[in-house]
Amino acid sequence: MKVHTPNSKFQPTLTASAVAERRRNTQQPVLSLSKGLTSGGVRLLMMITLIILIFSCERDKACLTPANYVNPFIGTGGHGHTYPGAMVPFGMVQLSPDTRKDNWDACSGYHYSDSTIFGFSHTHLSGTGVGDYGDIRLLPWSGGLDPVIEKYKAGELPYAGFSHEDEE
Known about the structure:
Number of helices: 3
Low-confidence stretches: none
Distance between the termini: 79 Å
Mean pLDDT: 75
Shape: elongated
Number of strands: 7
Order of helices and strands: EEHHEEEEHE
Helix content: 10-25%
C-alpha cells in the first residue's frame, strides 16, 4: 500500500511501513503541551511551584487558613444575642456555654462581657431576642460537692469563673 501526499509529484511516494518507521525514529515528546512544554518540563514546573508554596510561609507565623479569619465571638457582646458554639447547618445540637441566666441580654445564653460560666447547654438560638428555656445545663466540676451544695442552699447556681485574657 502506498501513501500519497497532496504534493505527490514533488515528494517521493512512501509506503505505510516507511511512514511508521520514520515516526519511530523521530524524537517527539511523549506529551506536548502548548508552546512545546514537554511532560518533563511540566514536572519541573510543578516541582518548583510546590517548593515555592512550601517555603513561602514565614517561619515565625503559621500559614493562614480560612479558619484564621473566623471570629466566633461576633455578635456575642452588646445586643447581638448570638452564641459562640459550633453547629452543622440545620443541626439539632448547638453546644455552647451559658454565662447568663436572666434578663434580655441572656437570650442566647452567652454574653462576651461575662466572667462566669453556669454550664454548657445543648440548644441555643441566635438573634432571637427572647430566651429559650427548658435546656439541660451541665457544669463539669472537680473537687468536692460542698461548694455546690452551699450555693444551692443559698438559692444560687454553681458557676465557674473564666477570663478572656489568654485568647488570641
